[in-house]
Amino acid sequence: MFDYTARHIITTRKEIPLEGSRRQAQETIKDGWYINLEPQFYPYPSPPQPANRPNGQGQSGRVRAYLSVGVQRPGEAEVPEMPEFVAIGEPETGFALQEILTSSSTARLPDGSTNQMEHKSETVVTMERSVFDAALFEVPSGFKRVPYINRNPA
Q: Are 29 and 6 in contact (CB under 8 A)?
């Protein structure tokens, strides 16, 4: 794409609860196409490269967040579960042109039965190369700076 080599990467993330866990199994599959786009062309700030790896290679730049919400019953001291993350392989570091995320999980209902859920989302980036008129980047002649804009005028 635009002289960039596109890579098709499929990443699977599984949450496998251990014996005695209150969590349910979950799986997320990310199916994406990526290119190595120069940082000056990114539409948003590119992530910082890990300082201890040449050219940002390796897993040291990974960041994970984990949130667990539960209901504590009166008189019970519930110890929060502490997850352990195991990464296999190198993370994708390119610019995503398309990503399709498919998540599936099982929810335990109050009556003890389970309900299988699936969610799918897609992100597509449109890129085009063109020459823009320099007038697009000039401040219009009638422009004036104002201290405040009333977004709900009377």
A: no
